[in-house]
Structures are given as structure tokens and as C-alpha cells.
Amino acid sequence: MANTPAIGYKFDDISEINTSKDAWAVVATPIRLWVVPSFSGKKLPYSMELVLMDAKGGKIHASVRQSLIYKFQPLMNEGRVYQISSFGVEESRGDFRTTGHGYKINFQFSTSVRLVKDLPINRSPYSFMPLSDVALNNPDSYYLIDVMGILTGYSEELEFEKDGKKNKKMTIEIEQDGVRMECAFFGNYVAEVLGQIAAGDKNNAVIVIQLAKIKPFRGKISLQNAYGSTRILFNPDVEGANSLRQRFLEAHEPAAQVLNHLPNSGKISVSDDFLKRHWGKTVEQIKNMRANLKPSQSFSIPLEHNRTIEHNKQNALLATGSWGMRAWILESEVCLRPPW
């Protein structure tokens, strides 16, 4: 581990990274680093994930596969600066994209990671989206976002069962310049959030949620945590926090500054999320539309995120849901199947 970048070595801006060449090298800091647990219940984690940022503010997602976690996890910490080179690059896909970059980095066995001490990156790790934009402008829910607001309410802990396993949920409400929005937390996040509320000054507290997932449901936009990537901070020392609190205090009478008790409605079913969020056509409507088609004909309907749904007599794809779930009409049968 070297303390200085290689002399005379040319480093690339993160914003320039693509698949046009193999040799890339960046100087960047992990602004978020987390380990994804095994989905099969095994002790070994599934992967290590990072969000890297360079001195110009460019951000890109990076992944370390299971077999290489032992090699890179001891070398990297959030907030420190590293020279990283000899990594793979691929297009960024999926429903949980941590940056707007069109590509992502994959660490390989040959990837080099060197600590850099004399090139600090003194930039905010957050890219805050105003709650008004989240609520009114229908942002792409594939991308995780950073938000900031005043805590105005929270629910009690709720236990529920999903796929035979017990889980926990709680919800908070935040406000930013007159716009209020709920954010749901699941699993280990519940104890973390309730612990921070119990331990800190929760009255007019500034809340920062880093890498939150946008959840449109039944005409309402809310937020929730995304696996292990999301981070919630109470009264952090970040730019804009004090001015946000001051505007809130000026806009509300003291009586209105008391925290609301939010009802906890429990889990949202997969079928409700799939049908309400992504498409308004019923199965009967699709069948009627197909009835007038000849076997060689097909039709398509625009779907969000620049996708289309194509239909024909033999096999009609209805929609792609929150987790890549698909619905198919096969004669009179409707099947839902997950991407794995």
C-alpha cells in the first residue's frame, strides 16, 4: 500500500469511464461501502459493494464478488482516498442503481488498490434531491437518491411474516419546505432508526437518508431502505441542515412541531406492488386486445423507463415489475415469475 500516487501516472475522471478501453485508473474515495449478505442464508457474504467518488464529484458503483472480498475488504474504508486500477467495466443495470453513471466497475484479482494520503477529496458525498422533485416530477425509481428533511413523525415497530420468515418494519415522515414524505425501514434498519430516535434530540431533527429507494404505490410516492446500501443520519453536520431547520421553525407554530404518530399499515403485497405500480391494463382488457389480432400481428404499449410491452397471439408479455418480475398470458393462464 503506497502513500502517494505513482509519479507521472495519468488518472482518469470517473465520468469518462466506459467500455471503450481496458486500462482505466482512478483516484477516488468510497463514499459508501457495504457487504451484501448471502441470499441463501450462508455465512459467507454475497458481495461487497461501493460507491466511489473522485475529486471532480464523479460517482460510479463498484462491486467485489464473493471470492475476492477477503482480498479487498481489509484494504478499503469509507472516507479514505485510493488509487484504483486494472478493473473491469460493464454497463450499469438493475433496479437499485446507486449513481447516474451508465457504467459500473468490477474488481478483479489483478485490480490494484493503493492508499493515497496527500490527495484529499474534500467534497460532500451527497447529491440531495428536493422532496418536491421526488413527489411531483416522477423521478426514475431505478436510481437510489439522497434526501434531507425535518423529522415530523414516526411509527411503532411492526412485526410481520414474509415467505415464512419474520421481519420488522417502521416508518418515519420527513418534511422539506412544506413537502412531506414517508420512508419505510425494514429488518435491521428498524432497531437502528428507533435507537437513534430514542437516543437523540428528535424534536425538529434534521434527517439525511443516503441511497434511498423511491417507491410509487397507489398514486403516492414514498421512500424505503434498499438492502444494506441505505444510510440514515440524525442531525448530521452537512451543508444546508441548519438553514432547513430554521425555515421549518419559521414556517410552523410550536404546536405544529410536535411529532406525529404514524400508523403502521404492514407489508405491501407483491401482487399489489406489481399491478398498481407498473401498468393499469387488466388481464381481461389484454385478452380482448389480443382477440382481434391475427397470429402474425403484434402490438406494443409504451412503458416507463423507455421500455415497451409487445403482445401477440402466442405469448403476451404484460409488464416488468419492481424486481424484474414478469407476467405472461399463455392461452387463459396468467403466470408471474421472478427473474431468478
Walk me through this protein's architecture.
By secondary structure, the chain is of the alpha+beta class. The protein folds into three domains: 14-116, Nucleic acid-binding proteins (OB fold (Dihydrolipoamide Acetyltransferase, E2P)); 131-267, Nucleic acid-binding proteins (OB fold (Dihydrolipoamide Acetyltransferase, E2P)), CATH 2.40.50; 271-337, no CATH class. It is 15% helix and 39% strand. The chain is built from six helices and 20 strands. The chain has a seven-stranded mixed β-sheet, with no helix packed on it. The longest helix is centred in the middle third of the chain and has 12 residues, at 188-199. It starts with 24 loop residues before the first strand and ends with a strand. Residues 267-281 and 294-340 have low confidence and may be disordered.
